[in-house]
Each structure stands twice: as C-alpha cells, then as structure tokens.
Specification:
By secondary structure, the protein is α/β, with parallel strands linked by helices. Among the domains are: 9-104, no CATH class; 239-358. Helix content is 50%, strand content 13%. The strands form two sheets. The protein has an eleven-stranded mixed beta sheet with strand order 2-1-13-12-9-3-8-7-4-6-5. Strand 10 (499-510) and strand 11 (513-524) form a beta hairpin. Helix 1 crosses helix 4 (69-104), helix 6 packs parallel to helix 7 and helix 7 crosses helix 22. The chain crosses the membrane at residues 14-34, 74-96. It is a multi-pass membrane protein. It comes from Streptomyces zinciresistens K42. Keywords: Cell membrane, Membrane, Transmembrane, Transmembrane helix.
Length: 595
C-alpha cells in the first residue's frame, strides 16, 4: 500500500474514534438533560416534555418554553453535568476495584472447565455416594455434605468441587494459606462419620472452632499429653492393646523411631538396634498386660530377666533369644543400643505424658474399635518436635486407622458412614512411617485421609524421596495452596498442568507499508513463577485422570453459621486461656515456701 493511502487510513481511524468518544459522552449526557429538565419542570409547575434528549441538551428553552431561565440553567445544564461526572467517577472507582481484585485472582482460562472435572461435580459425586454408601442407596434427597468433602468452587463459578468418599488426598499449603480455615475445619464440620484430627495448635485453630459443633454430633475425645490446649485428662488410651503380636510391637516401636530421627537416619545400626530392643520390650509388656511405662525400668536395667521370662512363657522363644543375645553381648554395644532405645522412649519418663497412656481410675478408656463405628471426634494434639510424645500421637492415629480397616472388612469392605482422618502438620506431629503404603487402600475402605504438609520437601524429610513420591502418586486428589517456594516442585507442577498454544502477532513497517504476521507457539499454562505467586484464597486441584483445576477456596468464616462458629471458637479459646492461667496461678503454699 502506498504511504499516502496508509496516512489516509490512519486519519479515518482517528476520526472514527473521535466520533465514538463524542457519542459516548453526548448520549448519556443528553438523556440526563432530558430527565433532569423534566424533573425540574415538574417541581416548577411546567409541562412534562416528550422524549427528545438531543433537543433537551442543545436547545432546552425550546423543549420547556414556560420554564424560567434560572430553572433551565440549573435543571438542564448544571445538574445533568454534575450527575454525569459523579456517575463516571463511581463507575471508574468500581472498575478500578474490580481490576485490583481481578489482578490478585487472575483467572487462568486454559485450566480445567466444569466438563473436564465432571467426576468431582455435584451430580457425579452424588451418584458415586449412592453406590459407595448403602445407607444412601434409597434416599430421595441427599445433602451435599453426605456426598463428599468440599474442596472449593471452580474458579470464577459457583460449581462446587468435592472429593468423594473413596478418595485419598495430600494438601501442600504454606502457613496462613487456608489449609485450616478452608480445608480442615469445613471438612470436620460436614463429616457424616467419625473424625480424627492431628494438630500442633489449639487456640484459634480447628480444635476451638469445631469443638462445640462436633460435640453435637457425638462424643469428643481429646488427647493432649503436652497440654497444647491445657485439656483436662478425661481419657486414656492403651498403646499396647495392638502390640501383642510381633508385627504390632514393631509398628509401635517404629512410631518412636520415626518421631526421633529422620527417614535418612532410620537405617543405621544404632537406630535399627534401638528400635528392635524397644519392640521386644513392648511385646513383653503387652503380653503380660503391664503398663507401657514398665519398659523404662527394663531399659534402665538390661540385666532384668523379667521380659525374657515373659516372652518365653508366651511362646516367643526366638524373640527372647534375640533379646538375650543383645543383653549378653559386648557391654559397649549393649549400652549403646539400650541408650538409643531410652532416648526414643524418653517421653514416658514424664509422668504427665505417661498418664495419658496408662490405666487411670474413674477415667474412660478410648477404644479405637468403638470409635470407628460412632460419629465421635478425636483430637490428637502435640508440639512440633515432640519426640516420644508425638510418637504416641502417631501411634494413636495409626491404631484408629487400623481399627477402621478391620471394621470395614467386617462390614463388607467399607465404612458407612466413612471416617475422616485429617493429619494436619503430619510431618511434625504424626510421622506414621508406612503412611504412603496405607494410602493405596484406605480410600477403598471408606477411610479418607487428608495429609496436610507445608511443603513437598517436608514430606521427603519424614518419608524419604521414595516414600513421599509414593504417597503423592497414590493420592487421588492433590491440593496445592499458595506459598510454594520450592522452584523444583513449582516447575514439576507447571509441567503437570501442561502447555497451550499461544497466538503471536508481529507487525513490521517498511517503505512498502505495514505487514502483519501471525504465528503459534507453546507456553506453559501456569509457569512456575505464577504457581509461586498463587494468591491466598485460591488453590490448584489435581485429581486422577483429570486436568488440573484452579479453585476458589471457601473458608468457614464466609459460610452460613459463621457467626455462631466464631462465638464458639472464642468461648473455647477463652477456656484454654483460663485453664492456662489457673495452672500457673501461684498457690498459698508457694507464698509460704517463698516466705
């Protein structure tokens, strides 16, 4: 195209844009002039003019000939202009707020649509619930909470996304990214069956928020050996109940091992030897129906023949021989092994901790086999790095899940209603060594674990690279929240989400005119830096066999009933504070001693 033609085209474009801009100003202003002029005419007693906005804007004196000059100036000139400017300002402000909000939650258009994750949508998840739960088979209407666990809404829509009662999940969410408020608490509040929660916090967390609501569904059991919530000891649990077999004793000893050393150190000589001694002594205590604390006396005096005699009397001669060989081995080796075992079980020396796992008069015993057939709630609380105390928390959670598996087998294969196990802060307070292996079958038993971690590396530290990879692969639902700062993991997620075709338009200018070319190239749908910058309130959802979806999370405090829950949480938090103050309040004897 010749340069002169290009210039003419540019001139026409400019004129057209100018005309459109004038029309965008004149049309609303003319209608405001006609409307305000008529309202003024009504107020001054003049006649209402017919619809003629253009004349009202350009020649108001002809539209309202009987109206005074001042009234015309104010009603058809000043007021319309002021209203127009005010409306423009309001629209501009609302648009700016919308853009600001949208900037924080940019919708990724190439993520999964509702049809891509149909198995997680309402109709499919309801049909699935009918087939999984015999109690719902003939129900005419099924409440949403009975069909699955709400994960959030498909971004930008009202479509609820739920995981079914045969799914197992891993959630990787950084602190304050909604893992408790948007996942743990809502799941607990709507669970149709028993609920197990592990946590390292109490006040202002899932414990205080859900306590009263869950108390309306069934009994609430709280195991708080390190007094996270300063809870009164109203239960005790016998960890040796499932340790009367060598496998059971090995599992219990494994919890003490996992709570004390990382996965990378569990294979060395001292760790394995200490765990073996601990297993043999736990087995002896269980067979003789002794309290678990008796093993501390045996660990302190290796020459004590009591555990040897118990093992032999109950037919465990090979185990007794192994124990005898260690006891009669080289003193330096024996002492090292026993000291390792003593360190693993050191929490049992604390009388306050030991009281939760030894028989207590007038206090009910928590029995996992009864819990799994109820609608009760079990809170398992422990501090980060709780050592032996966190071993007891992991052992209790493990015993509940194993009791649930046994009950499911007796009930025809599945629990109905299903049991929800929310393992919050699992890498800190609930290190179940073979949890990745359990993931392969728990969902098919109606046992729904949700393991919540702060990062992928945190899981690798506890279960090793192979173990964490196994749990990740076995999880049918994976939820990724904001705060992913691991570049390798973010890139892995980006590759899982995939690529899309992007159209690129390039324009070049030359003496012969302007030329435009269009090409296609592939880009990541969500690059690693965008995953790292996921805003709070959103999460990625990876479900087996489906495209990755972006979710809008639904925290409990934005749902119906939030005011009542908030009040209940405040009451529970105040009760914790009162118990803490009372516990540390100086007594009269303290003053007497000081005097």
């Amino acid at each position: 195209m010749p340069p002169s033609s290009t210039s003419n085209t540019d001139g026409y474009d400019l004129a057209l844009r100018l005309l459109l801009g004038l029309a965008a100003l004149a049309i609303p202003l003319a209608h405001l002039a006609w409307l305000c002029g008529n309202l003024t005419a009504t107020l001054t007693g003049a006649a209402w003019a017919p619809y003629q906005p253009t004349a009202a804007l350009l020649h108001p004196e002809q539209v309202w000939p009987t109206m005074g000059e001042t009234s015309l100036l104010v009603g058809a000139r000043i007021v319309p202009v002021v209203l127009f400017l005010a409306l423009t300002a309001v629209v501009g402000l609302l648009w700016a707020r919308h853009k600001s909000s949208a900037g924080g939650r940019k919708k990724i258009t190439d993520m999964a649509k509702a049809r891509d994750i149909e198995p997680l949508m309402s109709r499919a998840i309801t049909d699935k619930a009918r087939s999984l739960r015999p109690s719902l088979k003939n129900a005419k209407h099924i409440q949403a909470k009975d069909t699955g666990i709400l994960l959030g809404n498909l971004q930008g829509t009202r479509h609820e996304v739920r995981m079914g009662f045969e799914d197992v999940a891993v959630a990787i969410m950084a602190p304050r990214s909604g893992k408790t408020t948007s996942l743990a608490i809502p799941s607990m509040l709507n669970a149709p069956g028993p609920v197990l929660l592990t946590s390292n916090k109490a006040a202002g967390d899932a414990f205080t928020t859900a306590y009263e609501a869950r108390a309306q569904a069934g009994a609430v059991w709280t195991m708080d050996p390190q007094q996270i919530a300063h809870a009164a000891r109203e239960m005790w649990w016998n960890p040796l109940a499932s340790a009367k077999t060598l496998d059971g004793a090995n599992r219990l000893a494994g919890h003490f091992l996992a709570a004390s050393v990382d996965a990378s150190q569990q294979g060395d000589f001292w760790s394995k030897a200490g765990s073996n001694i601990l297993s043999q002594l736990l087995l002896a205590a269980a067979l003789d129906e002794r309290p678990i604390t008796d093993i501390m006396a045996w660990l302190a005096f290796p020459a004590d023949r009591t555990p040897l005699d118990i093992l032999r009397d109950h037919g465990f001669t090979a185990v007794a021989a192994q124990l005898k060989g260690t006891v009669e081995g080289p003193p330096e080796t024996r002492d090292g092994i026993y000291e390792t075992a003593r360190q693993y079980a050191a929490a049992l020396l604390n009388a306050e901790i030991a009281a939760w796992v030894t028989p207590q008069k007038d206090i009910p015993e928590f029995r996992p086999e009864q819990f799994v057939t109820s609608t009760d709630t079990l809170f398992l609380l422990s501090k980060d790095g709780g050592g032996g105390a966190s071993a007891l928390i992991a052992a209790c959670a493990d015993s509940v899940m194993r009791a649930a598996t046994a009950q499911a087998e007796r009930a025809g294969g599945r629990l109905d209603p299903p049991m929800l196990a929310i393992l919050d802060e699992a890498a800190n307070v609930c290190k179940i060594s073979d949890l990745p292996d359990l993931y392969s079958h728990l969902g098919s038993r109606g046992i729904i674990p949700i393991t919540i971690l702060q990062s992928y590396r945190q899981g690798q530290k506890v279960w090793g690279d192979a173990g964490m990879d196994a749990m990740w692969s076995a999880s049918t639902v994976k939820v990724i929240g904001s705060g992913i700062d691991d570049p390798d993991f973010a890139d892995k997620l980006s590759r899982l989400i995939g690529d899309h075709d992007v159209q690129t338009t390039s324009t070049s200018h030359s003496e012969s005119g302007k030329s435009t070319s269009v090409s296609m190239r592939q880009e990541r749908i969500l690059p690693a830096d965008a995953i790292r910058a996921l805003p709070k309130g959103t999460a990625l959802c990876f479900a087996t066999g489906m495209r990755a979806a972006m979710l809008d999370l639904r925290p409990w405090y934005r749902e119906p009933g939030a005011r009542e829950l908030s009040a209940a949480s405040d009451r529970a938090s105040q009760a914790i504070t009162a118990r803490a103050v009372a516990k540390h309040m100086p007594t009269q004897s303290d003053f007497g001693t000081a005097a």
